[in-house]
Design a protein that fits this description.
Helix content is 45%, strand content 16%. It has one domain: Alpha/Beta hydrolase fold, catalytic domain (Rossmann fold, 3-Layer(aba) Sandwich). The chain is globular, with a radius of gyration of 17 Å. It is an alpha/beta fold and 273 residues long. The protein is built from 11 helices and 8 strands. It has an 8-stranded mixed β-sheet, with helices on both faces. This is AB hydrolase-1 domain-containing protein.
Length: 273
Amino acid sequence: MRRQRYSTSMGDIVYWVSRSEESERPWLVFLPELTADHRLFEKQTDYFAGKANLLVWDAPSHGESRPFALDWSLDDLARWLHDILEQEGIVRPILIGQSMGGYLAQAYLDLFPGEVAGFVSIDSCPLQRSYYSGWELAALRHTKLMYLSIPWKALVALGSSGTAASEYGRAVMREMMLDYEKREYCELAAHGYRVLADAVDANRPYRIDCPLLILCGEKDGAGSAKRYNRAWEKRVGSPVHWIEGAGHNSNCDKPDAVNALIEHYVLARYDGD
């Protein structure tokens, strides 16, 4: 994939692009979770290379998109992503967001209605305020001291084992975490959770105006992800596809199953048009 850069007043955003020889193929835009970077989707970008046009980024303050001022909102991320897609001439993308990347996709849909061809949520949750209790949002705003109180070695072990059920998934998460210093990681995680709480508290419609595919690991133990996804399924009528044997990073734990579901959702429909 070709490494690209987009400059903002707060820092540079690094992303990677792969264009299919058949340029009319759909665009798959991969959005990693909080504290993770483009490596989270390496099993997907390898699989879909040549089958679709691809873009994956390191979100601001993540991975190679550092240094970057830790003063962004979810809407800021969505607007910068929109600028990058415009810079690359990408229209009607399919946004594939894992965890925080799924929240970002919903903010994007809210700010730019009618511009997205599809949304794949991987181990993410709905962004509407009605799904959340007050205490859950309060907890999201007060995580920094908790993270700082945990020794770094133990925090890395918890972060990798708590998000992935496979050795590969744990190894990828461990590798990404170790690219940060402890304080940098804790401040980034705490900022991301506050940003999420602010976005939910904004109480906006976050209407999904495109086909929705919901994927969630059967062993996802991150917060109340499984409960939120069951409620999401009931409200919007899009079934949750439970990924057997997968944790929170189901695209790493069970890439073959996840890739097959994405391919059926995206490429089979495209081939039938």
